[in-house]
Specification:
about 5% strand; 3 strands; single chain; 2 domains; hpI Integrase, Chain A; about 300 residues; DNA polymerase, domain 1; mainly alpha
Length: about 300
C-alpha cells in the first residue's frame, strides 16, 4: 500500500514533467509538508478520510495562517487527490468533501500618481536605478504578478510590436502590450548589462538580481519594500501595482473583458471588484466637477 510520502513524491514528479512552475510546486510542497507533519508521512494514503482532512483544516497548523493561505493548502491537497484518483491511488477526492475557508476581501488601495513619482525618484538611490525603474514601469504598465515578472526572458520581449509574452497561472500564455516609455526603460536597463543585440541573449532573464540570477518573487518583494521605505510609502508590494493598473485602466475607459485578458484572470469576479472601485471614484469626481453642483444652479 502506498504511503502519503510515496504519493506526494510521485505527484511532484508528474507535475514537474508537466512543466509546472517551481513557484507553484514550492507552494504545494509547503502545504504537503504541513499536512505530513499533522498526519505522519508514513500513513497509508487510502486510510486518509474526510475526517482527517477536516481535522487538519481546523488545526493550529492552518488556523495560524491567513484565510488565503489556508485556501491554498486546500487547493494543493485537492490537486494531490485529484491526481491520485486519476492514477488509481484513491477512489474519491476526499478533500472536495471539505469546504475551503471563505476568501478574505481585503481593501484595495491603489497608488496615487504622487506615490508612483516618489517611488521612481527613490530608484535613483538604489544600486541599480535603471533596473528598478524598469521594474516599476513594467508592474504599473501591465499589472503582471510577481512570479510572472521573474519568469520573463529576453525572448519574451517583442520590441517592434511592444508586446511581452507572459506565462501566467496554469501555464497559460498571454500577450501584453507595453507603452513606449516602458519599452525604453527596459532597453536602458538591458544596456547596463551590456545587452544591445537582444537576439544574442534570447534565453537570458529579462530582469536579474545584482549577481545576475533570475529575479524571483521574494527578491522582488524585498526590492519594492526597500524602495517604499526610501520613498516613505507604506505597503509597497507587487500586487498593489496590479491593483493600480487595473483601477486606472478602468478609470480611463478601458474595457473589462480586455482587462480580464491582460491580467490573466479566468473569471470576471476580481475585475468586477476593480470596476466597482473605479465607478465609485468616477461618481465622486462627478460630484466634485459637475457644473450643476459647482455653479449651485
Amino acid at each position: 500500500m502506498s504511503t502519503l510520502k510515496d504519493i506526494i513524491a510521485q505527484y511532484i514528479q508528474s507535475r514537474r514533467a508537466s512543466r509546472y512552475s517551481e513557484h507553484t510546486l514550492q507552494d504545494y510542497q509547503n502545504a504537503f509538508r504541513l499536512f505530513s507533519e499533522f498526519v505522519g508521512e508514513d500513513i497509508v494514503f487510502e486510510d486518509i478520510d474526510v475526517q482527517t482532512i477536516t481535522r487538519f483544516m481546523a488545526s493550529e497548523h492552518v488556523r495560524r495562517v491567513s484565510k488565503k493561505t489556508a485556501r491554498n493548502y486546500h487547493t494543493a491537497l485537492s490537486s494531490l487527490w485529484t491526481w491520485a484518483v486519476e492514477n488509481g491511488h484513491a477512489t474519491i477526492n476526499v478533500v472536495r468533501k471539505v469546504k475551503p475557508p471563505k476568501p478574505e476581501k481585503r481593501e484595495i488601495i491603489p497608488f496615487s500618481r504622487d506615490e508612483i513619482e516618489k517611488l521612481l525618484d527613490a530608484c535613483m538611490g538604489s544600486a541599480n536605478p535603471q533596473r528598478d525603474r524598469a521594474i516599476l514601469y513594467l508592474l504599473l504598465d501591465t499589472g503582471m504578478r510577481a512570479s510572472e515578472i521573474g519568469n520573463l526572458r529576453i525572448q519574451d520581449l517583442n520590441v517592434y510590436r511592444r508586446h511581452i509574452l507572459v506565462m501566467g497561472k496554469g501555464r497559460k500564455e498571454r500577450q501584453v502590450r507595453i507603452s513606449e516609455r516602458t519599452l525604453q526603460a527596459i532597453l536602458e536597463y538591458l544596456r547596463t548589462r551590456g545587452i544591445s543585440n537582444l537576439q544574442k541573449h534570447f534565453h537570458a532573464p529579462l530582469i536579474t538580481t545584482h549577481s545576475g540570477h533570475q529575479l524571483d518573487r521574494n527578491a522582488l518583494r524585498l526590492l519594492l519594500f526597500r524602495l517604499g521605505a526610501r520613498a516613505g510609502i507604506p505597503k509597497v508590494h507587487p500586487h498593489r501595482f496590479r491593483h493600480t493598473f487595473a483601477i486606472t485602466y478602468l478609470r480611463n475607459g478601458g474595457n473589462i473583458y480586455t482587462l480580464q485578458k491582460i491580467l490573466g484572470h479566468t473569471s470576471l469576479d476580481m475585475v468586477k471588484r476593480y470596476l466597482k472601485i473605479a465607478q465609485i471614484d468616477i461618481d465622486r469626481d462627478h460630484d466634485k466637477a459637475s457644473p450643476v453642483a459647482n455653479w449651485k444652479l
